[in-house]
Amino acid sequence: MSKVGFIGLGVMGTPMAAHLAGAGHDVSGFDLSADALAKLTAAGGRAASDVADAVAEAEVVVTMLPDHPQVEQVVLAAGGVLDVVKPGTLLADMSTIRPETSIAVAKAGGAKGIRVLDAPVSGGQAGAEQAALSIMVGGEAEDFEAASPIFEVLGKTIVHVGPHGAGQVVKAANQLVVGGIYGLVAEAIVLLEASGVDAGTGLEVLAGGLAGSRILELKRKSMVARQFQPGFRIDLHHKDMGIALAAARQADVALPLTGLVAQLVAAGRAMGHGSLDHSALLKVVEELSGREG
Ligand code: NAD
């Protein structure tokens, strides 16, 4: 069992840290929210007073933060993780951020003898709560091996996908597929309803055929019922579409559908739906046809 420092106890981090504590790891966590710290204590972890306090004794540090500025603040800034932990410590950044920041963090960590992995996840809140996440890991193979006992507590599909930053590129690919499928399911609902066909019944058939997907399986009922509490917020998906488009530019490729989906997600945010679940892309698609669910 390891001493784990866990920074970022939000929608995802709270259940993840609780699973690690439940598996017998010695978890010290920190978040800006007092509520989040109380949940960690209730799950058997220790609420630290700041980042340094959470990670000072850690053998493994896990970060689960919103975006790259928060990772830079927590990991790279003076008094942050790299300033505090001992050489040899393993840092798994499980946030979804741009690949170049993951590479920069790995380089800065390497200079201090700290082993860094980018390990973003897919599976959403349900995946975090059920310890069934998919984890895509970039970094050195031996560091991946060393971190595997931690990842195995959190997820079911755990794959080393390449060097530093590769985990984030795989996550960007994941997010463009997820966004695209949400957009198309939204269009299917609008078409069915506008044609006078019951959308719930129609999507049930789709879910059992070639169009079937995890999104149709897990989200079709809540979408038809217009239940959009997050889950995964439109604001975070907007960030991820930006990461995907920047990665495409970096790789010199054109991703036209990703560009279109990114604009729909941006519209959702501009319409004031940033705090809703990303399935609220339905509201944007409905608006385009002058319809309201
Ligand atoms: P969240 O906003 O619920 O949680 C982030 C937490 O980080 C918050 O509790 C916040 O208080 C804390 N935080 C921010 N700055 C901090 C700082 N300087 N020090 C300490 N704590 C700080 O976000 P989330 O939904 O848990 O997502 C976290 C990451 O995981 C994001 O990168 C997101 O894109 C990714 N992700 C989310 C989901 C999902 O379904 N929610 C799924 C897969 C991946």
General description of the model:
The protein is α/β, with parallel strands linked by helices. It contains 14 helices and nine strands. It has helices spanning 13-22, 34-42, 51-55, 68-76, 81-84, 99-111, 124-129, 141-154, 166-194, 199-208, 214-224, 234-250, 256-273, 281-288; strands at residues 3-7, 26-30, 46-47, 60-63, 90-93, 115-118, 121-122, 133-138, 155-162. The strands form two sheets. The chain has a six-stranded parallel β-sheet, with helices on both faces. Helix 9 (166-194) packs across helix 11 (214-224), helix 9 (166-194) packs across helix 12 and helix 9 (166-194) packs across helix 13 (256-273). The longest helix has 29 residues, at 166-194. The relative contact order is 0.10. This is 2-hydroxy-3-oxopropionate reductase. InterPro entries: 3-OH-isobutyrate_DH-rel_CS, 6-PGluconate_DH-like_C_sf, 6PGD_dom2, 6PGDH_NADP-bd, HIBADH-like_NADP-bd, HIBADH-related, NAD(P)-bd_dom_sf, Tartro_sem_red.
